[in-house]
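ingest -> validate -> predict -> emit
validate: passed (alphabet ok, no gaps, 313 aa)
predict: started
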Amino acid sequence: MAALGIDTSCYTTSVALSQDGEVAADLRKKLEVEDGGLGLRQSQALYMHIRNLPDMMEEAFTVARRDGIKVDSVAVSAWPRRVEGSYMPVFNAGRSVASVVASSLGLNLVEVSHQEGHIAACAPEAGLSPGDTFLAVHMSGGTTEVMEVLWGEGEMGIDVVAATTDISAGQMIDRVGAALKLPFPAGPALEVLALRGEGTSFRIPSSVQGGRMSFSGPCEAAIRGVRAGEDPSCVARAVLDCITKSVSSAVIGASEGTGIRTVLMVGGVASNERIRQGLIKKLDAQGIEVLFGMAGLSSDNAVGVSYLGELWV
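emit:
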């Protein structure tokens, strides 16, 4: 089986080609955000996806022809999450192109959620496969959730057991990054900056109550630190450590509530090495196995979407 995957998220146009679970093409193009900006309006992002997709689709089919790959299905992120009312206009760009290509070429059309794509991109390398039940943490620019996942036939059963009540971990990173005048998205630059911080005098308290995480208060505390002249590297380190502590606490609570002792970390924030190591240390001490995919597959991509296109035909 071979599938073409398309994902048009808020910040990245992605097209992937996979055959028998192996990646043949992984194409991505970041959407352009002006310096000092904190993101894009949906209309801006939608326009950029429409502009990016033709060349990326041509490149993917060129790879298929070159390597003799017969595409059987086209899979696409049609919604942010597989729940009623989950909708963002940006996903209409990929959905429209996928529908036209599938109809024109007589291919199967498989619609998945952006969240399912994130999980499927990282799960195979972590040793997870259809039929498994596990916890997953989705940490990105728009989402911070702890989920109980049953990877089933045709869809994933996902039950959110803990989540942020306000902004996401990724939004906290980007807002503090803007205060520090870092490029958007701020995650990579903030991680580099944090490595320079030698002191631990500046701290940000985490805010977790049961299954509810809050990052707005910690975010404001970090920005106040920036304005007060705190060492930027120490602020960066404190932000990443606050996120690590909050997510760890939420996962421990979720594990106690469900009895599940395995957790998969996905989403762009999960590619941060300091957060990764911090989560492993804190959760391993509680007997919880922490799994990651490749850092490059944690951020937005269409690889997981194409994998599901092979499985869910």
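The longest helix spans residues 232-258.
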